[in-house]
Design a protein that fits this description.
Blueprint: E1 5-10, H1 11-18, E2 24-28, H2 33-42, E3 46-51, H3 57-63, E4 67-68, E5 94-99, H4 102-107, E6 113-117, H5 122-130, E7 135-140, E8 143-144, E9 150-151, H6 154-165, E10 170-171, H7 173-185, H8 189-195, H9 197-204, H10 208-214, E11 224-227, E12 230-233
Parallel strand pairs: 1-7, 1-10, 2-6, 2-7, 3-5, 4-5
Antiparallel strand pairs: 8-9, 11-12
Helix pairs in contact: 5-6, 6-7, 8-9, 9-10
C-alpha cells in the first residue's frame, strides 16, 4: 500500500492539471458542500452535484425523482447547502445539491473514481482511498473572490491535510505542506474554522451551526463515493 503517490492541488485548474494522470480523486469543500454531502449520505440519501447557476437543476431533479436543494436563505427549513438543514433527511432521498465550488469540481469527475471528504469523515474516506488506486489527487475547492479568481480557503487546506495525514504513500511537496498545516492546527480546528474568512461569513449570515458541524473531526464514518453522477455512501 505504501506505493501510493499523493498529490494536492487547488480548484478547477488544479483538478484539470491532474485529471489525466491520477486515478483517484478526493474533493474538499468543507464550508460547505462536502460537509453537506457527508451529512446527507450518512442519513442514507444520495446527492447529485450540480454547478451553481447552471441551467437545468430543476429538470435534473424532476427526471431523477429528486429534491432540489434551495439557497440557504430561501430554504425555509427545507434542504439547502447548509449541512444543518440535512440532518433530518429521510433515507432514500435523492438530493440535487448545487454549489459553486465542490459541486462544480464533482461534475468534472463523473468518469473518475472520486470521493467527497471533509473533516467529519477524513479517516473513513482515507481508508477507502488507500486501496482504490495508485495515484490520488486531493483537491481543495477553495472559494472565489468577487472578480472570479480562486480564494484559497483554510478550511479546505485543513480538510485536505487531514485526509493526506491518514494516507500511507509518497507525498508531493504540495501534499506535504497541506499535511503540515493540518498537523499544526489540528488541536484548534473548531476555533480556526470559526475565525476563518469563510467561517465568519457563514456565522454573520446566521449559519453558525454549519461551521460547528464542519469542525467535528471524525464524527462520521460515511464514505461518499461518486457513482453514476451521484454521491452514495460506501461506509
Amino acid at each position: 500500500m505504501n506505493d501510493l503517490q499523493i498529490e494536492f492541488a487547488w480548484g478547477g485548474a488544479g483538478l484539470t492539471d491532474l485529471h489525466d494522470t491520477c486515478d483517484v480523486f478526493v474533493v474538499l469543500d468543507v464550508l460547505s458542500f462536502t460537509t453537506a454531502v457527508d451529512v446527507a449520505v450518512a442519513r442514507g440519501a444520495e446527492v447529485l452535484p450540480f454547478p451553481l447557476g447552471k441551467y437545468g437543476a430543476d429538470a435534473l431533479a424532476r427526471s431523477g425523482d429528486a429534491v432540489l436543494a434551495k439557497p440557504r436563505r430561501e430554504a425555509a427549513g427545507g434542504p439547502s447547502l447548509s449541512p444543518a438543514s440535512l440532518q433530518k433527511l429521510s433515507p432514500g432521498t435523492r438530493l440535487v445539491l448545487p454549489s459553486p465550488n465542490g459541486s462544480a469540481l464533482s461534475t468534472m469527475l463523473r468518469d473518475r473514481t472520486a470521493f467527497a471528504a471533509s473533516l467529519r469523515n477524513a479517516t473513513a474516506v482515507a481508508a477507502a482511498v488507500q486501496g482504490a488506486g495508485k495515484r490520488v489527487a486531493v483537491i481543495a475547492a477553495g472559494e472565489h473572490w468577487p472578480g472570479g479568481s480562486l480564494r484559497p480557503a483554510i478550511e479546505d487546506l485543513l480538510g485536505a491535510g487531514a485526509v493526506i495525514a491518514r494516507l500511507q504513500g509518497t507525498l508531493s511537496p504540495e501534499a506535504r505542506a497541506a499535511k503540515a498545516a493540518y498537523l499544526e492546527l489540528k488541536q484548534e480546528l473548531a476555533a480556526t474554522l470559526r475565525t476563518s474568512l469563510s467561517g465568519r461569513e457563514l456565522i454573520e449570515a446566521g449559519f453558525p451551526d454549519d461551521v460547528e458541524l464542519a469542525a467535528q473531526e471524525d464524527s462520521s464514518a460515511a464514505v461518499p463515493a461518486l457513482q453514476d453522477g451521484r454521491y452514495r455512501n460506501l461506509g
